[in-house]
């Protein structure tokens, strides 16, 4: 089954066994899992297994991607950081939206980087919520003064705060492909009016709660993306990772200055190096990126850790 605006993903399991592996693929890590765990699917960062009791083991690897390539170099502890941040946020979103996590009691080989989750019927939509202008939203605004059909006032700059939180959905592309922004009407046509309205309402509510929490800790949550699924009883729940540096754009409050690119707690060190002459890599060559130098790996790891520690107030160990 192809992921797209015109199709409904029946489950993570069906996605894993029916979606072809992209040419830009990578070996699945040997996690030394006990007997009975079946590998179902690997994305750019996550590996999905079916557990012996017919649930999903959701593992965050240390892989990192950039420019739609999974890089040959991993970032040590990245998967542990992303998992810890997601769990921290799931706790703080109780009362706003239920989530897919069942337990964090997982095999020793994936300790602190995995969680056992419910199987869900997943919606084929990247639910993006924006409170600030950046990234693909900035590009679309500069061309149309709107994002995903949502009109915005003139005069906004790179990094400007938007008048209110907006929902700017995108299609879910296969590994190695580009997500494409779509309008709310296209989402309605894909999944139905009631479901589309629920995803929009939940996305905005989660963003608003998270932005308030992050700002209290000295971070601006510029934008973020969510994935939702549906339980057999029809309840819509939050799935996948949530509000991590991989799925969100965080800026330090003290450095925010509209009108220019903002400092970000993500893999910008990686993108900058790959785009520089130092990497020797041509993005248009069709060849994969080279290994990252140690300095870039260390700086990127430090940024992920800093985001976790600033947000949670806990030391990463």
Describe this structure in words.
The chain is an alpha+beta fold and 317 residues long. The chain has helices spanning 12-18, 78-92, 135-144, 184-191, 193-216, 268-275, 294-312, and strands at residues 38-42, 46-50, 56-60, 65-66, 69-70, 101-103, 114-117, 121-122, 125-132, 146-147, 150-151, 161-167, 170-171, 219-230, 236-239, 248-252. The strands form four sheets. Strands 8, 9, 12, 13, 14, 15 and 16 form a seven-stranded antiparallel β-sheet that branches. Strand 14 and strand 15 (236-239) form a beta hairpin. The chain is globular, with a radius of gyration of 19 Å. The protein starts with 11 loop residues before the first helix and ends in a 5-residue tail after the last helix.
Main features:
seven-stranded antiparallel beta sheet, alpha+beta, D-amino Acid Aminotransferase, Chain A, domain 1, 16 strands, disordered N terminus, 317 residues, five-stranded antiparallel beta sheet, Phosphorylase Kinase, domain 1, 7 helices
Could you say which structural class the secondary elements and strand pairing correspond to?
alpha+beta
Task: Supply the CATH architecture of the largest domain.
Answer: 2-Layer Sandwich
Radius of gyration from CA coordinates: 19 Å
CATH superfamily of the largest domain: ATP-grasp fold, B domain
How many distinct folded domains? 2
**Helix content range of the residues, please?**
25-40%
Average of pLDDT:
90
Distance between the termini: 40 Å
Q: What characterizes the major β-sheet? A: 7 strands, antiparallel
Strand-and-helix sequence, N→C? Answer: HEEEEEHEEEEHEEEEHHEEEHH
The CATH class designation of the largest domain is Alpha Beta
Q: What is the count of helical runs?
A: 7
Runs in which pLDDT lies below 50 for 5 or more consecutive residues are 1-24
Report the β-strand fraction as a percent range. 15-25%
Kindly state the number of beta strands. Answer: 16
Shape from CA axes?
globular
CATH topology of the largest domain: D-amino Acid Aminotransferase, Chain A, domain 1
InterPro entries: SAICAR_synt/ADE2_N, SAICAR_synth, SAICAR_synthetase_CS
Domain SAICAR synthetase/ADE2 N-terminal: 39-284
Family: Belongs to the SAICAR synthetase family.
EC number: 6.3.2.6
């Amino acid at each position: 089954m192809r992921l797209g605006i015109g199709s409904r993903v029946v489950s993570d399991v069906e996605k894993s066994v029916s979606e072809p592996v992209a040419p830009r693929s990578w070996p699945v890590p040997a996690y030394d899992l006990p007997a009975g765990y079946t590998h179902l699917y690997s994305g750019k960062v996550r590996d999905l297994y079916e557990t012996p009791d017919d649930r999903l083991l959701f593992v965050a690897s240390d892989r990192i991607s950039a420019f739609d390539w999974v890089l040959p170099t991993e970032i040590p502890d990245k998967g542990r950081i992303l998992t810890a941040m997601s769990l921290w946020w799931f706790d703080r979103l109780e009362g706003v939206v239920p989530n897919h996590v069942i337990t964090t009691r997982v095999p020793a080989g994936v300790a602190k980087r995995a969680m056992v989750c419910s199987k869900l019927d997943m919606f084929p939509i990247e639910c993006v919520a924006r409170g600030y202008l950046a990234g693909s939203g900035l590009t679309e605004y500069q061309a149309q003064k709107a994002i995903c059909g949502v009109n915005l006032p003139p005069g906004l700059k790179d990094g400007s705060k938007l008048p209110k939180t907006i929902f700017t959905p995108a299609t879910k592309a296969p590994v190695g492909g580009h997500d494409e922004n779509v309008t709310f009407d296209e989402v309605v046509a894909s999944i139905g009016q009631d479901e589309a309205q629920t995803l929009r309402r939940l996305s905005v509510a989660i963003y608003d709660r998270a932005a308030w929490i992050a700002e209290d800790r000295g971070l601006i949550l510029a934008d973020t993306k969510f994935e939702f699924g549906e339980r057999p009883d029809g309840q819509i729940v939050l799935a996948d990772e949530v509000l991590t540096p991989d799925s969100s754009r965080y800026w330090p409050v003290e450095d925010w200055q509209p009108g220019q690119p903002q400092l970000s707690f993500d893999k910008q060190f990686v993108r900058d190096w790959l785009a520089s002459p130092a990497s020797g890599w041509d993005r248009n060559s069709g060849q994969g990126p080279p290994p990252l130098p140690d300095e870039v790996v260390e700086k990127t790891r430090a940024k992920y850790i800093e985001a976790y520690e600033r947000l949670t107030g806990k030391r990463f160990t």
